[in-house]
Design goal:
Blueprint (H helix, E strand, L loop, with lengths): L2 E6 L5 H7 L9 H4 L8 H8 L10 H8 L1 H12 L13 E4 L2 E5 L6 E2 L3 E4 L5 E9 L14 H14 L3 E8 L3 E8 H6 L1 H6 L9 H6 L3 E7 L2 E6 L1 H25 L5 H10 L8 H10 L13 H35 L4 E3 L4 E3 L10 H7 L1 H6 L9 H7 L1 H7 L14
Length: 412
């Protein structure tokens, strides 16, 4: 066995489970720890692990996902037959809930909490990762796609367990079940079939390769999508997670015995991982960088000049593109006029009214005053201006702040 059980999730609270996950890198942390998450960057994860930021503890979507996890697991069993008994009484494989946080013996910083695990009819062990993709997320799973965050999560689980097979059971939009299999043994055995293109029903194009570069190939067979991922990427996950843990271990060593919260926080922030430039990182840094402590401008060389030149060019390109977009749209609107749309031998364009979430409140109030009064409710509203006047110090403590990046050319 390549792992050990370290925490019984069945007999502990969710708060205790969340605290246990802070001791290493869990599967849901994996993509953030290597800088490939859409939602969280390395710096944010680092601060969570060091206890100076509160991590995500769930919302309505995750609560619903937990509620229907059993339902999706049952749908998977019915679709695959795994875990059901045959007429002769023999089980076709096995599927069971995992009630433990497990830890890799070879890579002790790697943890996982599996949704389900089981045994295939051929005797091999597998991990089942259950996902509930709502309407707004289902497109990212269509056509055999798997969001990189989730594929990295599954690959992390395979590294921890040492199992050869990882399976996604995904409910799309509440009415479609998709089963996607990452079979490391199958990839080795069927290399020739993949190269020959047998049974292919999906051909990844350039945009797919760019946006889902972890997945290198797909094969449709028997209603199940088989994913082919680079073997080297498993090693990349291990190496990059190890590098990330070095920052955690260094900060833990430096803060050992420190009881002053401000001193502890300063040491943690002085040893954050380097910036990688991801979208998640950009969003986090804008809202969470510390306040300016000095009036000093850091002197930088040609490398930073090149970065700033490129940044300015991109900003100018975006501005020009937005202006061009508005001009071109105006030409199209003018041509359509009062009609529903227009078409050419290549394009069909519609321009018609549709319902939106907006509401003309002021016009409604003016034209329907009695109905307006009937459906107007009084709600408690914080008087921020009065709070600022009477409790300036308290107001400043809770005021949101952001640092704005402005470029200005130096005249020589």
């Amino acid at each position: 066995m390549k792992y050990q059980r370290v925490f019984d999730t069945k007999n502990h609270s969710r708060e205790e489970w969340l605290a246990a996950r802070m001791k290493g890198i869990g599967a849901s942390d994996a993509s953030a720890s290597i800088g490939m998450s859409r939602y969280k960057c390395q710096i944010e994860l680092y601060q969570e692990k060091m206890g100076i930021l509160e991590g995500f503890t769930g919302n309505e979507a995750t609560a619903i996902g937990l509620e229907i996890e059993d339902t999706i697991a049952e749908l998977f069993k019915k679709r695959t037959g795994i875990g059901f008994k045959e007429p002769d009484g023999n089980k076709v494989g096995d599927l069971r809930r995992s009630n433990f946080i497990i830890q890799s013996i070879e890579y002790p910083w790697m943890f996982a909490n599996l949704d389900r695990e089981g045994t295939l009819p051929d005797g091999r062990r597998f991990v089942l990762e259950i996902k509930n993709a709502g309407e707004y997320m289902k497109d990212s799973w269509e056509g055999g796609c798997v969001p990189d965050d989730y594929l990295i999560q599954l690959m992390h689980q395979l590294i921890v367990t040492g199992y050869p097979v990882g399976i996604f059971g995904v409910l799309l939009g509440g009415n479609k079940l998709r089963i996607l299999v990452l079979d490391r043994d199958l990839q080795k055995d069927l290399t020739d079939d993949w190269e020959a293109g047998s049974n292919f029903q999906f051909e990844p194009d350039a945009s797919f390769e760019k946006n889902h570069f972890v997945v290198r190939d797909l094969m449709e067979y028997g209603g199940v999508t088989y994913l082919k991922a680079d073997d080297d990427f498993f090693d990349l996950i291990i190496d990059n997670e190890r590098d990330f843990m070095h920052y955690i271990e260094k900060a833990q060593e430096l803060t050992e015995g420190i009881t002053n919260k401000n001193t502890y926080r300063d040491i943690v922030l002085e040893n954050i991982p380097p910036v990688m430039g991801s979208i998640a990182e950009h969003a986090f840094l804008r809202e969470n960088l510390p306040e300016n402590k000095t009036a000093v401008y850091v002197e930088c060389g040609e490398d930073m000049t090149d970065i700033l030149d490129r940044l300015q060019n991109v900003k100018e390109t975006i501005k020009k593109s937005q202006e061009a977009k508005l001009e071109l749209e105006a030409l199209v609107y003018d041509k359509i006029g009062e009609n529903e749309g227009l078409q050419t031998d290549k394009w069909k364009v519609s321009w018609k009214q549709q319902n939106s979430s907006g509401f003309k409140s002021e016009k409604f109030k003016e034209e329907e005053p009695e109905i307006y009064r009937k459906y107007t409710v009084k709600v408690p509203i914080l008087d921020k201006k009065l709070l600022q006047q009477e409790q300036q110090e308290v107001y400043e403590r809770y005021k949101t702040k952001t640092r704005v990046l402005r470029l200005r050319r130096i005249k020589k």
